[in-house]
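Bug #77: duplicate submission created two jobs. Keeping one. Sequence:
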Amino acid sequence: MKNGFRIYDAHTHIGQALHSGRQFSAAELISRMDRYGVDRALVIPFPVVDDRRRAHDEIAKALSAYPDRLTGAACLDPFLPEDAFRDELRRYVEELGCRALKLQPQYQPLNPLSPRAEFFFGAALNYHLPVIVHTGAGIPFALPSLFIKPALKFPELNIILAHCGGSIYFAEAIVAAHVCPNIFLELSSLMPHHILEVLRYVPPSRLLIGSDTPEDLDTEMGKILSLGVPEETRQDILFNTSQRLFDRTR
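Kept job's structure:
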């Protein structure tokens, strides 16, 4: 499908999810990307898997098979012993090539205000990894406002609020991004009128879009493609912001 825009799916998953039963291979994702004209995607392990290391190895194989199409992200248990957490994160960055770190508070209930969260975000900054945080469902620890504190503590760390708080908390995500210039908003699950409201307060250079799952790719990208805003705005949301965040060496 040709649409005239470069597209970067900033939030999708491959592997097998124990919590939902979903399962997607890299080849299936690439097929959908080709169908809908998506140039590149950030692939993340599901947050609940039977073997965390094997799930990340699958990400690494996907990156090797499709280096021009996929970028990898890690998703670790934030409650691992600190040394084990550092060792795993080092492996995923230095050996597997991951370029972002995901936190899913629904299944990884890390209090963003806690000392343990300070360790988590500090470890990400040590490897210059943007942190993608699920927000919305999963409160209280998925509330967008709770990520203001780590964003202020680590001003050099880019924090991406996935789903922009969802349709209930998207205004709170706007406030978080207004307070912290290092907070970015990923817009999946919002309705188009929510996105237009976000754009009143947050520049498109800090907005990005993901599918979350390959089944939703057409819907999530389509709502940005059809949004009644300037082409430059759509291109920032569809591609430019994600490329700057995740593909620093490209």
